[in-house]
């Protein structure tokens, strides 16, 4: 452990210098859209980075003075010929020098260089504390994951020891702990985007408990306290969504209520809007459409001063889903028109970080759900087909979801063979994604198509679906309460 003088030196910060060069590279893309471009570029060269709007903001604010090696390779791939200084970063040797090595060894730096102190804070935030508090990893853990289902292997990255009676309590929380909570949220969301909720939910509940324990720790700065509350609330919503998508509606409702209470305690309007947004979605899926409308309207009230048309657009879609569930076509159409108008206003720097999934594909997919609920299968199929075509490949789970919606809408509209073909595509995606909600939708499509099994494509789908269901049951992949899924 570093001596007190070294620790106190590392806790002092200096104002970061904004990275204007990187901001220019982002151009007219929103932080969320740029983050999606970074993830796509990473996949092109075989890298895996959890880039999101908050990471982009940290780079542009100067908080991240030099990216890690994975991000450096991705940025060099995106901007050929540019060096780190060309992108506005500090050269790597400047943050891997004598001061950083001395701090890592537990000694105070030879000279109290402010840049080196800032570097040590960054290293601490992005490595040791994060892994210690929330995420297990390393070569030994990786070897242990090799025999598991790929979803389980990915989910193990978010597991952490549950604090017990012998675990020393955290007595003081700072920026490093806040950053750890924020990174846990990003990591879990990334896993959900790729693999769906099942296999992740139980493990994700562990860092959530740790995050709420940190709220009882001593925090000296209000800014850190606000980050901890916001991070814990976002983590509660994220874990609630995993429960929601796994068919555990009561658990989801509890987590969303916890996030809403946290938002009210710290006066965080953005967190409150997010909690109400997910509550509305859950109420719709649970067959409580009137509650869905009320929750969506409460979310819009909380978000009205947040300067994010895209957020208001999504909240209008949540309201539209409630109206559709009430068979109120007029109310639904009005909300849909409002959602489209707000979406057309474009992205803003103030868009919440968690909304990186909300693009044209999600807009089309949610509209498809509304038209399906209103009984307009042909219109629903058109929107679902558009949602599949527009979806970013990063969001594997959503591709499976929209394709399952398409299969159901086609089956309802009488296009049985096309529905069966879409169903087969979903079954292929379910080898990578586990979602009770998607499987429930596919089960409904299979039931509708059984009367048409004399057709070759339909019979093939039904056989594959039955084999998949049997395999899922044999491996214990079923989820309690999945039959109630949306």
UniProtKB/TrEMBL annotation:
Taxonomic superkingdom: Bacteria
InterPro entries: TPR-like_helical_dom_sf (IPR011990)
Protein name: Tetratricopeptide repeat protein
Source organism per UniProt: Streptomyces kronopolitis
